[in-house]
Amino acid sequence: MQFAWIDAVSQQGRRSAPPRLGIPTLRKLIPDPFIAVLLLTIVMATVFPVGGALAGLLGYVATAAIMFLFFLHGVRLPRDNVLAAVLHWRLHLKILAMTFVMFPLLGFGLATAFPQLLPQPLWVGVLFLCALPSTVQSSIAFTSMARGNVAATVASAAASNLLGIALTPLIVGLLAHAQGAGVSFSGVWKIFLQLLAPFVIGHLLRPWLGSWAARQKAILSYIDRGTIVLAVYSAFSAAVIAGIWQHVPVPTLLVLTALCATLFTVAVLLTAFGARLLGFSREDEVAIVFCGSLKSLVSGVPMARVLFPGPEVGAAVLPVMIFHQMQLMVCAWLARRYAARDGAPRNEEP
Fold first, then answer.
1. Is residue 18 a part of any domain in this protein?
2. Where are the alpha helices (DSSP H) in 2-135?
3. pTM (two decimals)
4. CATH number at residue 119
5. 3-class secondary structure, 243
6. pLDDT tens-digit readout, 213-246
7. By the number of CB atoms within 10 A of the CB, which of 59, 288, 339, 347 ranks highest?
8. Rounded CA gap, 155 and 87, in Å?
9. Half-sphere exposure of 28 (CA within 13 A, CB side)
10. Domain annotation covers residue 35
11. Angle at 209 between CA 205 and CA 212, to 5 degrees
């Protein structure tokens, strides 16, 4: 859950920056630097996996860091800004239905129709991806760039992440069980203990810590990403030791990427045309597309560490990382197309 941008974006609403001249269009498709860091982390975990007692220690450190991360999310969630936009219930219901109903059904349909395309651990990862909540930071940034309903995106993205703490484990457990996978509900209590409880405590302390968090956005952003890097290194170390790369050769990786692209394409089409069929305004359509079709890496990695046994975390996280990079590249282009249709300059930055 990336709540770091909510205060600034929700207060500013639609904002724009001066155009940048002389930058090629292809620059917009360069992978997110954070994804490059995560890829390097996977390489490090592959070459230097941590096992034994050191792996246990790293696991405890990663768990503590994740609990602190969700505590900070609670501190930074602006209650008043979110409550001010929740009255647009039709829009929020559409987004939540896409996130927690249509997406899981799409993933389940693909897994049922083409079970031989991927090994079962990767299919579980795809189902986990489909059950994740929406991303907050990217949804708001792309909605702002496309001149959409920013306030509604803030409310829906925040609600999606709060509901996801409870719904994601339930959905992925049910879907995986229907596919014959061994995902246990016994880890659900850890979600509440390690993610929800710190979040609630942090939000209760927001009156005292909120202004401090607002002044430390840059530092807290590094903490957010550093925690994810630590969790990914811990997860892939266990996966490498368990032999993940023997089960995920290059052809399998390409098939997984194609499946992620299919899911994302169908999600964008369903959100866009569904919004038009239901009579939503252009601004609301933008919010629905960018909140309903995106998935959260920052929520996904901590949840995967809690829900799946050590060796299975890497396979669960891999589809999320592929999908995350894909949504950043495509939505950057899509947001500029929306902005151009509204008369905004194509080179506007979020």
1. no
2. 6-12, 33-47, 52-76, 79-83, 89-97, 103-113, 120-131
3. 0.78
4. 1.20.1530.20
5. coil
6. 888 888 888 888 888 888 888 888 887 887 777 7
7. 288
8. 10
9. 20
10. yes
11. 170
